[in-house]
Each structure stands twice: as C-alpha cells, then as structure tokens.
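REQUEST ID: PR-0412
SUBMITTED BY: lab tech R.K.
PRIORITY: routine
TASK: structure prediction, single protein chain
INPUT:
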Amino acid sequence: MKSTNIKTRLAMVGMLLFTVTQACRLFTPGNQHIDETVTPKVIATAEIQAPTQDGSDGQKTDFPLPENVSNFTDLGNDTINFQSNLSIADAISFYRDAFSKIGYTEREINTAITDETFNLVFDGQAGGKPIIVQGVDLGDGTINISIRLEDN
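STATUS: complete
OUTPUT:
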C-alpha cells in the first residue's frame, strides 16, 4: 500500500514540476512566437459526450480513459489523475482522437511535447473551460496522466 501511495505522490510532484516548467517557458525569451490575435475555433459546444467510464476501484469520470488505467484518483474540482502503461506518443494519439471525435479542437499554441512529457489543451466544452491533459513518463514503463477543466 505504501508503494502505491509513494508512486501517487511522486506522480503528483512530477505533474507539478511539469506545470511549473511549462509556465516558465511562457516567460522565457527565445524562439517562441505567440500570436495573440489567433482565436481557436470551437467546433462544438456540447458537454463532454464520452460515456462515463470506470477508473480503478469503480470510480467514474466524464473524461475519456484508455483501457489500461491504474491508481485512478478523482481530485475534485473537475480533475482526475491516473497511471497507464501507454507510451507518451500513444497517450497523445488517444486523447487527440478521443476529443476530436466529440468535436473539440486542440489549442496547438499550448501544445508542448518532449520525450518524457506532454501538455495538450482542448477547447469545445459547453461551459467554455479548456480541458488540460498532461502526462509525464514515470520511468518504470508507466506514465502519469492528469486531466482537468481549467478556469478561464
């Protein structure tokens, strides 16, 4: 039980570090060009239409989940966290496909992908909140994925 708790804590710390790293990139001079006049297209404005899915321990979520989920945690405030044995590339493909099928668009200006992490943002949720999907490779054949609705 302690091993699972430590993995969960490490995953949470990893996601926090990833988020801080991505935020710092916004304020670092360099080769980044951000066109603030571009507004992402919203194809649909319906609620998430994916069926409610079971995480481990029978927990439910409105966010799409891959088949192989472990350590599913509903953190409240429209935020979930879990681990999967998908690769970073497969997780990115899964979420791009799942959200595009329900009419959401990826906010590509916010997309950040490395060999060990990813950050995707999707628009189209009825309440107008962007959906943030972040993943980090835990180095043991699993990745930690966090999904949340972000306040505007």
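NOTES: The two ends are 37 Å apart (CA to CA).
REVIEWED BY: pending
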